[in-house]
Amino acid sequence: MRHLTLSFLFLGFAAGLMAQSKLVPFHEQTDFLFASPGGLGTGLYGFDNPAMLNYVRHFDVLYAWQTNPGKWSGLSRWGLFTAVRHLGFGVMHDQTPGSPKSVTDYRLALGFGDRTFGMGVGYGWSGNADKTYNRSSLWTLGFLIRPDRHVSFGLTGISATAGGDKEGIIDVAVRPFGTELLTLFGDMAAQTKKPDKDAAWSAGAAVEALPGVRFTARYFDTEAFTIGMNFSFGRMGLASQTHLDDRQKQSRTTYAVRLGAYDRNLWRTHVKDRDAYLKLDLKGPVKYRPYVLFDKSTTFYELIDRIDAAERDPGVAGIAISLSGVQINRELAWEVRERLRMFRSSGKKVVMYIDRADMTDYHLASVADRIVMDPQGMLLLEGYVMGRTFLKGTLEKLGIGYDEWRYFKYKSAAEVFSREKMSEGDREQRQAMLDDLYDLVRSEVCASRSMSTEAFDRLIDETFLFLPQDALKAGLVDTLGRWDVVEKVIERMEGARKSTIRPWALEKFHLPYDNRWGEPPRIAVIYALGVCDLEEGIAARKLANVFDRVTKDRRIKAVVLRVDSPGGDALASDLVAEAMKECRKKKPVVVSQGFVAASGGYWISMYADTIVASPQTITGSIGVIGGWMYNSGLKEKLGFSTDHVKVGKHGDALYGFRMPFVGLGLPDRNLDDSERARAEYAIKTLYQDFLTRVAEGRKQSVNDVETVAQGRVWSGIEGKEKGLVDVLGGLDRAIAIAKRRARIPDDCDVTIVQMPRPPLFDPNLFLSGLRGAQQKTDGWYEHLKWRLERNGQPLPILPLDDMEWQED
Fold it and tell me: Could you give the CA distance from residue 156 to residue 158 in angstroms, rounded to a whole number?
């Protein structure tokens, strides 16, 4: 409505224009155009309609000149137009044939907005103008409205600073197929001091049957017309346009050369061989949301997006990846591996370099066509283990008592405080997850390396540690060498030398915006990372507000919630779950589960339209647990004493001493039987509520949910078999499902909006140079502190001591 209001206001202004003019008529001033301003490319970079600058993606420059039939005109008429996004500058020179008199017009323009609605303003002035040319400085105001990929509507108003002359231009373009294949366009320009019947107009068509090969035809109300050709060679383009007068005789020819920004081109798409490898160095952490400043970590989504871009790029033959120093958990590694497997299925190659690799690194590397190992490297294939450190004895020695409130077989989150070894339930579920993990890795490595499962088992059980020559002999790697020799490995594999490129050189990140009018549909990827807490971890209050904004944002067509959380506070989980539930009423919501999305992490997943998990995801754990830490001699050992008065029988239940400096405190006593009974009631009631909500979200009966509950964790593989998960896959699979559910065509690009915004910088960064400053608080201290702050609360949570979820 705002866009329409501005349009009608502009039309009213143009209609009111209708006294000799100091403005050169629009069609004369812009006869270097091959089409109406909005009908082809980015026009004259703001010289025509400054709002077009919103479609300029990178620096570009166009030089155009005209000649008369059969002779060289001596460059009496030429133009130079250049722009970066949102800013354009143009120069047009005109000289009267056979006369030394000339004029040079200048335009400076600014554009604002996006690809759906943009506006711009420009200022023009002239040099060497005299009475022959009757010029005035001028202001230009332009609008560009492209509500979808089929329609373009432009409005331009020009006002002279002297004489009061004004001109209004309207241009409309239509793409029947929604692509650059065919564009129909038309425009009309009217000046003041001229009757309506003298309004000038033109209409025509632009055809791009092959990438970067464009033909244009344009008819004018004067019965003149033009025929043009435009050829793109990537960062260079050539064009020619013949102008025919009202008697269909050639009056002049326009030539143009463009340099700078990348453009669609036949050479790249259909002629040029795949001659480049994308080179990626993954040293350092792979994170969901690195800090904005001072953080060189690899962003997980950007990594997946680069692989996708390389797959689509016709000039890319493969990818070379260095895993030296990579820090990535096994679930994210599987998602990267799976995306590379899809990349290979397109007929392109993958080369991996490793030096000191473990099971996770090798599982990722095994997808490659060639694995290069450093001559001084080492490969450790030790298998997998899940273990815990139990603190019961430590707490007893310290004088801290712990009362575990556990009513479900597999809910083991508090075992480390109450036991000296795993319970049978915890041992059972952990062994099952490790078995699934090992089976997955073995099957995928064997398939990629053409190895039998028996041979893989022998390598794991009998050797496990491989020096480079051992790994080569065992067929685990293909060649030995350093990262700097990978290009030679590629040359031997391909039988020809291939260049290497960096991600910024991929075609996807340079294609012109005019290949699709309007902003692409948006899909929001919302991250719920870390412990379920109101202010920390997933920061539930803020996350619920993010969902509220996304629900109201009409530009966002679907939502993907990426969950990597072991649970925590039920209130925090439910705030997010309810916000998701409200969002689902307006648009599709798909959950993508990361390393762990269990307990409270499953709570915030359960209302999704579709739950996607990787085979290695830890999911489920529908259960609740509680416990009570209290003083059992620590206060006395430290020399503290306490005293109190109270009102109410249970007034002192939470009262106890607090240790200075560290901020930790313990209640003085354990709970009595009646207090413990109420705690049991709260845990079991919350558990039943959890079951009921899962049943509602998953469209199952409570009894069916109960069979997979009891606090049991499942791998993603088992989770799918049990109905807790719908689809096995990664974040890219979840985005594809969200796109389909939003009824976005498969060939339509989307814009991914990642939310919430990551922090600006790591506050510990500025402490690292201070003597004695601790950059990261010990995990056990944080774990204990978090527990004490929620002492006695019923919690849908996993063990916090050994889960490798991503918190950034």
Answer: 7
More confident residue, 39 or 295: 39
Strands 626-631 and 656-658, sheet pairing: unpaired
Tally of residues, the chain? 808
Distance of CA 524 to the CA centre of its chain: 9
Q: Is the dihedral of CA 265, 267, 268, 270 positive or negative?
A: positive
Residue 558: partners with Cβ closer than 8 Å, 6 or more residues away = 523, 524, 587, 588, 589, 590, 738, 739, 741, 742, 744
| pTM for this prediction | 0.90
- CA atoms within a 13 Å half-sphere pointing along the CA-CB vector of 431: 7
Quick one: pLDDT at residue 596? 95
Pairing assessment for the beta strands 556-565 and 589-598 based on DSSP bridges = parallel
Supply the pLDDT for residue 9. Answer: 43
Structure tokens given for 454: 């028996």
Q: What percent of the chain has pLDDT over 90?
A: 78
Burial (CB count <10 Å: 0-12, 13-18, 19+), residue 149: buried
Rounded-to-integer distance, Cα 320 and Cα 428, Å: 40
Query: Containing H/E element for 83?
Result: strand 77-84
The count of C-alpha atoms lying within 13 angstroms of the C-alpha of 678, restricted to the half-sphere facing its C-beta, is 8
Omega before residue 211 within 30° of 0, cis: no
Q: Within 278-423, where are the H helices? A: 300-312, 330-345, 359-365, 392-398, 415-418
Strand pairing report for 556-565 and 522-529: parallel
Count of other CB atoms within 10 angstroms of residue 67: 16
Distance CA 712, CA 424 (A): 12
Degrees to nearest 5, angle at CA 717 with 715 and 720: 105
Q: What's the pLDDT tens digit per position in 452-472?
A: 999 999 999 999 999 999 999
DSSP string covering 202-248: EEEEEEEEETTEEEEEEEETTS-EEEEEEEE-SSEEEEEEEEE-TTS
DSSP 104-169: EEEEEEEEEE-SSEEEEEEEEEEES--TTT----EEEEEEEE-SSSSEEEEEEEEEESSTT-EEEE
| Mean pLDDT score, 260-266 | 91
Written as six digits, the tokens of 382 are 């030790």
Single-letter amino acid, residue 533: D
